[in-house]
Amino acid sequence: MRELTRHVRAGAPAAGRHIRAAVSMVFAALAWLSLAAAPQGSAASQGSAASKGAAESQGAAAPPSAPVPWQRPLYGGPDLVGLYLTWSKDPTTTMTINWVDLYPDSPSAIHWRRVGDSGWAAANAARTVVAPSALQRRSVELAGLQPDTMYEFGIGPAPEPPTDEKAVKAIESSTWRFRTMPAALSPARPLRIVNGGDMMHTRAMVDAMNAQAAQIQPDFAILGGDLAYDDGVRGARVIDWLESWMRICVAEDRRLIPMVVGIGNHEVRGGYGGRIPDDAPYFYGLFTLPDGKPHYALDFGRYLSIVMLDSGHTTEFGGAQAQWLESALASREASQFLIACYHYPAYGTTKAPEGGLPIDNPRSVAIREAWVPHFERYGITVALEHDHHNFKRTHRLRRHARDDDNGILYIGDGAWGVETRTVPTPEQGWWLAKASPTRHLWDIELRSDGTATMRAVADDGSTLDTVTIDSPRTRPDAQHQADSHKGQ
Q1: How far is CA 233 from the centre of its chain?
Q2: What number of helices (H) and strands (E) belong to the chain?
Q3: Contact 177, 255 (CB under 8 A)
Q4: Predicted local confidence at residue 53, as pLDDT
Q5: How many Cβ atoms sit within 10 Å of the Cβ of residue 331?
Q6: Contact (CB, 8 A) for 254 and 301
């Protein structure tokens, strides 16, 4: 990464800043050396020999990234490791701007305005150290924004009003844009989402799929865990992942693409049963989550609710999380669309126990016992699943059986930028409508009439699968409701 190899910026007024920056650079250099010593894609070693062979047959190296002519250059502007947008409150009227660099004394202020306005407003960000590294994260939430409106911002003090075209271009090169979400959908304004997980075995792989996401120009992304494969200890991988997103996953109008994030096993030391935040320091250090918990909901007006869940990585499947899920779904019966997202799948494609099928894995069984009855009782649009490094779409399923009229679709299986594994044969995988060992993301469009289209896109831009739904949520399962009332 070119920024990390540059000398400390000249002209800093205090010698102390040079010393602190130099120490930060030493930490970064050590991190990069540790990354070079580790085999790329070593996280994939957890897969079986058969899955590794399948990955090799597809080709471990990603194809060249599709050209993104509006990609940010690797020079000029602030010396950033990463710049990314998130939400912890209303996505129609707020935006949280986060950026990461190596310098404790670099600016913590931003200037921002609605596109088309002449004056700039100012806001100050909070600074935290993303332990155990020396990375410096700054974060500021802008509130009271107008829905479906484009804003622009820059880091540091506001520039002087431009007096010529050169000054205008200088402002454009040092600012980024974001758009708030609409208060309501309309025939002319659908919502576009990309989804995936298991993002980065290698930088080439994540770059290729980030380029595909940028070409789609979505409103935002739902990322279902295993983001950088840092395992709670590999800061250099976090740097790579952040930079790839900042440089490549940018829309044509200089608009940054916000992310809604979930936790996976490769955010956590040990993968499962970790402590919050100690065993997933990069995940909890980089993202401000509602109530500080990995299971949370975001509401987009009355047209969409997203429910993010923790599949056992730092929170148990059942107990308090399952109780929270039931309450969250019960309070969102009026939401037009409702999407559930989590890392480990209820209906996966690999990791079968000895003598069994992938759906017999104890973690899959636990999800079907703790969460799926609530999905079926209240009805959802789709369940987004990850972790298994393949492409899949299930049949519509209800009560662990195929139900083409009222069942839930489970899509995904987490292969944004990883080596793939094997999938069950059609005879074995009765729950699967389509599956293959293919890297991909999902392109989801939600429309005001309650219909939606979900398209799987491979890292070469080809379409793997398309499914259209005619109703925004599955019909609530009356039997589950009756069973719940009996237990009260």
Answers
A1: 19
A2: 11, 23
A3: yes
A4: 34
A5: 13
A6: no
Distance, in Å, from the CA atom of 99 to the CA atom of 91, rounded to the nearest integer, reads 19
Residue whose structure tokens are 């890292």: 459
What is the C-alpha to C-alpha distance for residues 60 and 418, in angstroms, rounded to an integer?
A: 8
DSSP code for 431: T
Q: What is the pTM of this model?
A: 0.86
**C-alpha distances out from residue 150 to 32, 106, 117, 119, Å:** 37, 27, 11, 15
Q: What is the pLDDT of residue 480?
A: 64
Task: Determine which helix (DSSP H) or strand (DSSP E) holds 196, and give its type and residue range.
Answer: strand 191-196
Q: From CA 419, how far away is CA 413, in angstroms rounded?
A: 12
What was the pLDDT predicted at 450?
Answer: 98
Tokens encoding 290 = 């509602």
- Residue 278 DSSP code: T
Q: How far apart are CA 275 and CA 484, in angstroms?
A: 31
Using CA atoms, how far residue 433 sits from 27, 362, 470, in Å, is: 48, 22, 18
Which whole-number Å values give the CA distances from 254 to 68, 246, 281, 339, in the listed order? 12, 11, 30, 28
d(CA 157, CA 423): 53
**What is the bridge-based pairing of β-strands 82-86 and 382-385?**
unpaired
d(CA 260, CA 281) in angstroms, rounded, equals 18
Provide DSSP, 457-473.
Answer: EETTS-EEEEEEESSSS
Three-state secondary structure of 202-231: CHHHHHHHHHHHHHHCCCEEEECCCCCCCC
Q: How many of the other CB atoms lie within 10 Å of CB of 292? A: 12
Q: What is the DSSP string of 127-189?
A: EEEETTTTEEEEEEEE-SPPTT-EEEEEESSPPPPP-SHHHHHHHHHT-EEEEPPPSS-BTTB
DSSP label of 255: B
Q: What is the mean pLDDT of each run of 10 residues along the chain (488 residues)?
A: 35 39 42 38 34 35 48 59 97 98 94 95 97 96 98 93 88 92 98 98 97 97 98 96 95 94 98 97 97 96 98 97 98 98 98 97 98 98 98 98 97 97 95 98 98 97 97 88 47
| Per-residue pLDDT, 305 | 98
- Report the pLDDT value the prediction gives residue 169, as an integer from 0 to 100: 87
Give the count of alpha carbons within 13 A of 218, CB side only.
25
DSSP state of 237: H
Element (H, E) at 85: strand 82-86
Q: Is 252 helix (H, G, I), strand (E, B) or coil?
A: coil
Alpha-helical regions (H) of 40-137? 49-58
